[in-house]
Amino acid sequence: MIPAVVLGIDTPIGLTIVRDLGMRGVAVHGIAWSKNAIGLASRYLHRGLLRAKGDAALIEQLIALSGELGTSCLFAIAENDIALLNLHRERLPRYRMMFADAARMNRVVNKEQTYAAAARAGLHVPQTRQVSSMAQAEAAGRELRFPVVLKWSNPHEVMRRLSAAGLPLAKAHYCQTPPALLDYLQPYEAAGMYPLIQEYCAGYGLGQFILMKDGQAHYVFQHQRLHEWPPEGGFSSLCVSLAPYRHRELMQQSIALLRELEWEGIAMVEYRHDPATGESALMEVNGRFWGSLPLAWHAGASFPWLAYQLFGMNRAQTLPPYRTGIRCRFMAPETKRLVRVLFQPHRIADRNLTIKRLPTLFGYLTDFLRPRTRYFVFCWHDPAPFFKDLRGIRRN
């Protein structure tokens, strides 16, 4: 087997890739932002390196590493790093890339292109407006149902311009009324750019994970977000693996969407599913390893290993069906969520969301006793990253 290089072992995502490959005998070389990175403590890491400072220095670091290792697989976690590496693909010929090329990444990062492909695949997309003036925003406020959620069509494209203008880049912002929408958007008028305005979708987060190659789905997995941080919607703090028979038709539509996008590699297709109506609304496509990857791994859906085999070794790998009903907790944000629900409910932006305090506290405590509960960081056969994470939390 050829070695693997994982750029970004500071998070549970990178740590899970290290564990999945290292347990199977792959020599994993991990690159971390900081010496405090949890991935550096894993027993399954062959060698840990600190990331060179600056984009140019990082590329030179990777070139030097490839000269030492020869042919190897390169995993990257963050979208910014994927964009940087795609710019320099021709300078990294010895690496077999475990992420999509720039053209495909741009399609999924740009929500307008994704939503257009979703319409062709027969998926439901919430009513969305991209405005270019306050007058258009005012008109959207009359046409859309409230509350609405504001998000950027292409966050990476606007990040620097927003920073230069002193404006925040919020992943999602809720507005309850048309006046609140106009008040929030007013500062963006000077910058001449505005986020997407999207109708609120009730329900829970549903993620469908797919490994695509040559238009075929080689492995699929799905989960439900039980808790999110922040509570009104964000990333998973508690999630559970769902049986394949659930949302089967939707999974076929997700695969059709990725075919429309000519996708190659791993992707998460994210929905908001309303159990009251049975309707699922597409939120976005993440064309990278996702935050809840630890759940998939604990359930037996070893996406890093499958990608390594398929795109690194050019051979398909067969895995047994994953386990359903596995719950996975990201303890730091799960604890922050508990504090928000118990003591700061007024700070929950989604006014339609009702969370009862005592059942929340009871569920937080009893999850420690559930035999099917797993954790984003803690793992009994690789405990050192957990203790390193605890030390980092205390420092912060």
TrEMBL record:
<dbReference type="InterPro" id="IPR011761">
    <property type="entry name" value="ATP-grasp"/>
</dbReference>
<protein>
    <submittedName>
        <fullName>Carboxylate--amine ligase</fullName>
    </submittedName>
</protein>
<dbReference type="InterPro" id="IPR013815">
    <property type="entry name" value="ATP_grasp_subdomain_1"/>
</dbReference>
<keyword id="KW-0067">ATP-binding</keyword>
<keyword id="KW-0436">Ligase</keyword>
<feature type="domain" description="ATP-grasp">
    <location>
        <begin position="115"/>
        <end position="312"/>
    </location>
</feature>
<keyword id="KW-0547">Nucleotide-binding</keyword>
<dbReference type="GO" id="GO:0016874">
    <property type="term" value="F:ligase activity"/>
</dbReference>
